[in-house]
Target: Replication restart protein PriA
Amino acid sequence: MTATRVAVLLPYPFDRAFDYALPDGMNVAPGQIVTVPLGKRMVPGVVWDAPADSSVPDHRLKPVAAVLETPAFPDTLRQFIDWVANYTMAPRGEVLALGLKANLLDPPPDRYGWVAGAATPTTKRREAVLAALAALDRPDTAALAAAAAVSPGIIRAMADAGLLRPARRDQGAAKLDPDAAPPILSPDQTGAADALRTSIAAATFSVTLLEGVTGSGKTEIYCEAIAQCLRQNRQALVLLPEIALSAQFTARLAARFGAAPTLWHSALSPTARRANWHAIATGTAQLVLGARSALFLPFTDLGAIIVDEEHEAAYKQEDGVIYHARDMAVVRARLSGAGCILASATPSLESSINAEAGRYRHITLTARHGGAAMPRIETLDLRATPPERGKFLAPPLIEALAANLAGGGQSMLFLNRRGYAPLTLCRACGHRLNCPNCTAWLVEHRAHTSLLCHHCGHTERQPTLCPSCSAEHSFVPIGPGVERIAEEVADLFPAARRIVMASDVMTTPDQAAAAIRAIVAHEIDIIIGTQMIAKAWHFPDLTLVGVVDADLGLGGGDLRAGERSAQLLHQVAGRAGRAALPGRVLLQSYTPDHPVMRALCSGDLASFRTAEAALREPGHWPPFGRLAALIVSADLHDVADQAANALARTAPRSDVIVLGPAPAPFAMLRGRHRRRLLLRAPRGIALQPVIRDWLVRADVPGAARIDIDIDPISFL
Ligand SMILES: Nc1ncnc2c1ncn2[C@@H]1O[C@H](COP(=O)(O)OP(=O)(O)OP(=O)(O)O)[C@@H](O)[C@H]1O
Ligand SMILES: [Zn+2]
Model:
């Protein structure tokens, strides 16, 4: 008798589904989640649509152990996983693992989130929590703390005091209400909202680029698209580039829809993850706010995907499955028959070109909401008015800070560099302190009294003797990081209330939420931060922004250096003067005539993009052509060279241009030696088949690893 075979894809780095035998009396359909033996373990897997693999004889097949009660993986998600694996060339099981983890599959927790208890609040803060609770649907601690703008400790204290009790699963979930608190839109905004509503109402695939200046109300407008999606009983997904933003957005969405969105990001507790995953898989979660991995959730019926700050490089996942969440959001929307909305004040060249070519719809908003003016942006020429020796703030910026402080205004200093100093040098011999594992300098972090590699995490104490010349106490910090700027500000304005915001000092969304609350409440005078403070924040009292080093992003020879720099600095500038008071922005620069500085000061980013496009089009550089990178790495540099040369010898010859091999931007990273080959081709040519064929032909030593990065965005 022949066994009934079923193909099961496992969430591990295997490209294909494996065959298992279906025991008598057990029935499965594609998408169902099962447990199967793998070696000595029992692992979860998804019944896949792949044809049976007859190479394994029946008697060697292992049986499916159990079919889980968990809702099945929808067809659209399986198609998406196949598509992503095929495009990124990652093993299909590894892509599956982005959406399926063993610990998600247990039944959802019985008690989850909070409801009001019997006791009566005694403080204003506790009252505020209960008020926020009334507007939310059994939020977990983090969501409730964010909505009420208190610390999570308060929530726990309230539970101890009987003001809050854990919610039970069987208590019906409050629904989001599309009409809970709609804004009154301006005529411009109304036009944009109508267009988005119509595209969502059509319940078919479309992509819209929502381009609007900072503070124009893009968030309010895409909420109208979400409202439409909710009215049609379809699920909506909002992607954010950084989880630190999720607290402020949770509160905004909860206020708009009368109940909190369902969160999805790496900082959730395991219980919250499991509860949220099940809510999404059963369709009770109507609106999901998440990081890029939320694209791999088992939505039952996804009607809208919004990618906020679509130009952000943070949407590119750089390890494991290397994918761009903005591009994959478009694919997910297509497979789901959903509307995709890409929102930005500074769209990527990719999206602008797609909009211009008519592949995407295009909506633009040119004015800030409520009559707020765009900030005045000026360069501050560091050649003419340099900072004092060993300092980094030039006199005109110091004056502006002093005046703003005296007038009760809030200021922000932006420097996209964590730590105290990016380089530590021996004064006696010039020796630089490098990472032993990477081609990189060690960054001094005074907050942790250590030197840190930002690439591999290596830390060490500063040596007392120079390892090169044995001079004693000879090390000097070179250049500034945000900690050093904070020190300079403390010297200049000892009475000013300061806060440093950077990913290494604010590691959780809760910490970020507490900081944001303090800033909005104007308990802070000067905010000093990295790119963490650049995005999407709305600080009503912020009127002065100083960019400490506007030239920083322009070096490095990266294809997108200019574009990225313009986007980032425009975003930072856009934090200023968003409410009643006008904003001013000072860009400290040694190259005030650079096209990026000119575009920022004039506000004419469109012309800048046109100029960028003109530079890229002739050579088929993205977005006018296709690019892929092959990164060869090995423990020994000989092996890395051998592998890179083997690839070079068999390089495809056709319309595809192969550049390299060259040392990768970090010739050594985490102790591995790296070489890079770059493939470039006109838009009409798919690079994946070329690469597949090439890898079969090339004789690459087994000790070398090859990582494939389709559409690379970080490279030299
Ligand atoms: N029609 C409206 N009614 C009331 N408030 C509005 C309206 N439109 C915008 N706002 C408010 O103006 C501020 C800026 O709007 P929003 O954050 O949506 O802009 P944005 O375009 O997303 O900005 P950015 O690109 O800088 O993130 C917010 O506080 C928002 O609530
Ligand atoms: Zn390192």
Q: What stands out?
A: The chain is about 30% helix and 25% strand.
